[in-house]
Automatic annotation (TrEMBL):
One of its GO terms (molecular function) is DNA binding. CDD domains: HTH_LacI, PBP1_LacI-like. It holds the Pfam family Peripla_BP_3. Keywords: DNA-binding, Transcription, Transcription regulation. Residues 2-57 form the HTH lacI-type domain. It comes from Inquilinus ginsengisoli. PROSITE patterns: HTH_LACI_1, HTH_LACI_2. This is DNA-binding LacI/PurR family transcriptional regulator.
Length: 356
């Protein structure tokens, strides 16, 4: 395979002259010199090393996307939307599943940066971005998805997220408005910014109605390691079974996402309980499955397409230096989508009512 030095030898010029022709820096070059270089390139069939050029020019038109796990269709849909938005701006996307593991995220980010990828969207919603600080000092540009960037500006260049606390409030207000007083919360370990926000929102909605969220009804994975992103349906199934088996079970639950909610459907069926007759269920995200399960799932919608496009555009503006005056941290508004999985609570004082 021909090298840049082979081209220089055949054209009778220096390697730096060949580089100038390849990178369009030939305004002051004699036309005959440029022509010799181009003939040598064609004669040798020389193809420039794209990666080397990217490192020199800083114009690698590829971004990274690191998601928890595409086992949850929400993250697969995000990857699709990010790719569409990036393609429209002339960029490619490399994406990785890191299961919210800071060490794995760091390894992926180091690999991407070493490959010339300078901008990465992280969607793990961590409580801290400290594990990436050494990479941002080396030039990595971090965009946060599903996590507000405020408070982490030294690491996060831009961010987009819904107001997770508002989303939790919307779910709680809906259930309280239907008459529910015993409300549970089902999640994997509550150690991400988004999960904390959703739980706090539910707690605030209940407090406003003079109610208290019973700590015994906050179920978070029963000691599972990691974050439960790949096991969502099974954890939802286990969680609702455990809550319904309590001496004073909830009449409604809010789940951390739709996959947990769909798993909760199976858990209710295991006990012979009906939805929403015995227990109302509210999900979070509004994935495509939410509208087609039976009963159709009441859920809090994230405007995914708009959020993905905003994240990509914000990241590319930073990479291209065109972000002056742009708001770096964008908060989108969640929307409650009411379907058939929620209803007023059944009167449990009647001997024939309640979960069996």
């Amino acid at each position: 395979m021909a090298s840049i030095h082979d081209v220089a030898r055949v054209a009778g010029v220096s390697a730096s002259t060949v580089s100038n022709v390849l990178n369009g820096r030939h305004e002051r070059m004699q036309a005959e010199t440029k022509a010799r270089v181009l003939r040598a390139i064609e004669e040798l069939g020389y193809t420039p090393n794209a990666l080397a050029q990217q490192f020199k020019s800083g114009r690698n038109r590829t971004i990274g996307l690191i998601v928890p796990s595409v086992a949850n269709p929400f993250w697969g849909a995000l990857a699709h939307r990010v790719e569409r938005a990036a393609t429209a701006l002339g960029y490619k996307v490399l994406f990785c599943n890191a299961e919210r593991d800071p060490q794995l995220e760091t390894r992926y980010a180091e690999t991407l940066l070493a490959s010339g990828v300078r901008g990465v969207i992280f969607s793990s919603s961590p409580l801290s971005f400290d594990h990436l600080s050494h990479l941002t000092r080396r030039g990595l540009v971090v965009a946060a998805f599903d996590r507000r960037g405020h408070g982490a500006e030294e690491v996060v260049a831009c961010s987009v997220s819904i107001d997770n606390e508002l989303g939790g409030k919307l779910a709680g207000q809906h259930l309280v408005g239907l008459g529910h007083r015993r409300i549970g919360f089902i999640s994997g370990p509550i150690k991400t910014s988004s999960r904390v926000g959703r739980l706090n929102g539910l707690r605030a909605a209940m407090a406003k109605a003079g109610l208290e969220l019973d700590p015994d009804l906050v179920w978070q994975g029963a000691g599972i390691g990691g974050y439960g992103d790949t096991e969502g349906p099974e954890l939802g199934r286990i969680g609702i079974r455990e809550l319904l088996s309590r001496d004073d079970p909830p009449t409604a639950v809010v789940t951390i996402n739709d996959m947990y909610a769909i798993g909760g459907y199976a858990g209710a069926r295991d006990l012979g309980a009906s939805i929403p007759g015995d227990i109302s269920v509210v999900g979070f995200d509004d994935i495509d499955l939410a509208a087609v399960v039976h009963p159709a799932l009441t859920t809090v919608r994230q405007p995914l397409a708009a959020m993905a496009e905003t994240a990509v555009q914000a990241l590319i503006r930073v990479l291209e230096g065109t972000n002056e005056g742009a708001e770096p941290h964008v908060s989108a508004t969640p929307q409650l989508i009411v379907r058939a999985s929620t209803a007023p609570p059944r009167d449990r004082t009647h001997p024939n009512n309640g979960a069996r």
